[in-house]
Amino acid sequence: MDSYLHLKAEFVRELAAGLGGAAPDALAGRAGLLEATVRDLLAGDGELMSWEVVSACLAAAAVDGDAAGRVRERWSAAEQAMWDERGDGPRAAFERDPRGRPARIVELFQPRVPWRRLTARHPVTFEPWAEPVFDAARSLPDPASAGDLREFYELLALLRAWAGSPRQTEIERRSWGALPDATVSAMLQKDRWRTPNDRERRRIGYFTAACGLPEQETARWTACYDRLRRLPPPDDLARARAEAAEAAERLADSRTENTALRERLATIRAEAAGLRERLEAGTGAPPVPRRPYARRAAAALGGAVLFASGALFGGAVPGGPPERTCFDGTLRLIGSTAFEHMARTLAAGYEERCPGAAVEVEAIGSNEGVRALARPGADAAATIAMHDGHLAPGSVEVGVHGFQGLAVSLVSFAVVANKDTGVTGLTAAQLRSVYAEDAGPVSWRGLGGADLPVRLIGRTEGSGTRTIFEERVLAGPEPRLSSRDCLTRGEFHRDARLIRCERSSQSQVLDLVGSVPGAIGYSELREAADARRHPNLRVLALDGRRPDASADPARYPFVAPEVFYTRSLPANGSPASAFLTFLATASARPLLESLGAPLCIAPTAPLAAPCGPA
Question: Would you say residue 254 has pLDDT above 80?
């Protein structure tokens, strides 16, 4: 078998022939790369560069398909040989320590070949790089062109497109777990102006490397971030004033619509009273009780008034005049993973009642759902964000984007631990000591359990379940992230008191808690209590009280309402308006009751106190 260095030299010769002697400075200018990068590529210096860089140079030189194909074959052969030779070290390390990642070797190898990915923990196997679809005319964005951090993050999104738009999960693999997919989403979607820090700088380095950039290009991006993170936002005041003016205009429209709805309700009541009087005068019969359908009609309209006015306990509620409770088209329920099962139950029941409707459920996390709804260009009339708990009244979503929420039902959550910990319950004080940043037990023995280290497995930023856990159970934040594999401390967190890792979905958390010795985490109760799927998990009692479907926050604190958010008031007849109007009618109650959780929505009554904000 040819050696890696021999195959790499053949690749460099084939590349030079394909480029036809193009000058490095000219190629760099057309491709958007540094001249040093192109010179290193043509000289074959350093590690083999990614196909993103190679293909960018080929596109800049207008190399035809046949020649590019020959270069690609040589590059693939060199890449495979490189891994065959360089992978022996990680493989041997895994064989020596099959229960944990060989952190030192992986950390040394990872920056050199970021597009390679680990596919199994033991024995070690590796996947070759897969070619994405590129635009032949693409050019690498210049980070120096960003005037502030907002523009910088927009360029990061363009960099991802330059790299062939890899999925967030693919970026997580290319970064060897350093960038969870939820973190990638937050980097590309969230306003990061208020959070510049050294940790974010490292994330940008991992992100640019995962997009195929070599070390000198990555350094250019991190240097630009260092420059921009110290600049004040020059347009914040003007932008805030414009957004406030838009919010005030929307509020005025809502008040006008609310007045019209109240007048309509008064007219219906007057007509019903007159009809009743005429019936009694004409027949001499005793007063005729109102028919159930009349009560339902009045209740539905009253519910719509409550939607528009925000009179229900806990904040504004979306909706509009209930002209229709069915729609033709597609509605997206996007957000909370804890409410996924219940959302799919509602979607199936609604589709059965309304054959022309399609309700898609996307469980991507509460805050991710909110961000998707707030994103410019989002179809607000056909999108509902599912969020664990209420958004803060002063949040950007409520104050600027006009988000309005309808609490649907209460959801119980659970603290879970691996059965090998030997504990069946904790007091609130004990649980808070476990999650304390600087002091507390590091072994379950100190809590009456087994002699195993405490390992915390939490949700990533953007999780509504994590927010509820921090606010209603811990009364403070979780400790800092210190591990990627949930088994050992990371290189930069050797001083951390505990091992704590994060995952982007509740199913990932539950799977890890069930497989990692000494692990503890949290999840929605129904999923956590599924013993067939998670036989090694134990749902813990808190202060002697076990969670159940009754979701009574007076006896068990880890309970929160599931809130459906719309952006402003959806137009009558829109998918969002029709779906929420249906939920507020009496005919929807059997479907809601089938969820088995206490309801927050009723056709004739305001929200109960537990359904409001904490």
Answer: no
